[in-house]
Write a sequence for this structure.
């Protein structure tokens, strides 16, 4: 269904956007020595009550009216658990939500990370009124892209201006290659 972790990240980040977040933080961390890949998505959206959280892990719960079944979170949970990892949700109503998932990096059933740079690029370009902080770490080296900093530099120039869009794309790809040396994740 979502055979790549990066597509699952897109889905979880879109939950944050639908929850009215103005800032979405996405962290992808790879630790080869500990054989673990972690994904953390935090937002300042509407949050969930304790009761909502317990129901969200159930595929038959969703607040969406357009569809009866919500599958983004249950899928992430299952995808993490089959690799010996786990998924957790922490949330404060009207304040914040944090989704944490860990995967066994070398587990045979782990989905590939997929094209994470394209996912982040798509999120930023498709939601220019929302800020994103993206952090990618591999074995202790990391880089980040903070759209709040970009905004300060760019002023009124929109992210979808070709030069800016191209810069964002190259920034994501080149920094990733610097950090993971093209290691296939
Ligand atoms: N970051 C969040 N903040 C507030 N509520 C959330 C957040 N993420 C999920 N939810 C709530 O949990 C429900 C389930 O999310 P989930 O991604 O599993 O399914 P969905 O988004 O409803 O549907 P699908 O992902 O299959 O399109 C959402 O409908 C929403 O009510
Ligand atoms: Mg969803």
């Amino acid at each position: 269904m979502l055979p790549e972790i990066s597509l699952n990240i897109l889905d979880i980040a879109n939950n944050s956007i639908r929850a009215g977040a103005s800032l979405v933080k996405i962290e992808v961390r790879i630790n080869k020595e500990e054989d673990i890949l972690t994904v953390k998505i935090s937002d300042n959206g509407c949050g969930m009550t304790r009761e909502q959280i317990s129901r969200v892990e159930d595929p038959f719960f969703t607040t969406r009216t357009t569809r009866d079944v919500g599958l983004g979170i249950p899928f992430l949970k299952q995808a993490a658990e089959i690799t010996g990892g786990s998924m957790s949700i922490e949330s404060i109503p009207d304040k914040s939500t944090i989704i944490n998932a860990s995967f066994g990096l070398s587990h045979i059933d782990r989905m590939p990370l997929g094209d994470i740079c394209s996912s982040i690029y798509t999120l930023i370009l498709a939601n220019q009124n929302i800020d994103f902080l993206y952090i990618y770490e591999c074995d202790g080296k990391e880089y980040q892209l903070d759209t709040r900093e970009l905004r300060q530099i760019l002023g009124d120039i929109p992210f979808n201006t070709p030069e800016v869009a191209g810069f964002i794309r190259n920034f994501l790809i080149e920094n990733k290659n610097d950090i993971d040396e093209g290691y296939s994740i």
About this structure: Strands lie at 23-31, 36-43, 86-92, 96-104, 131-138, 141-146. Residues 146 and 164 are 14 Å apart (CA to CA). The first helix runs from residue 5 to 18. The chain has six helices and six strands.
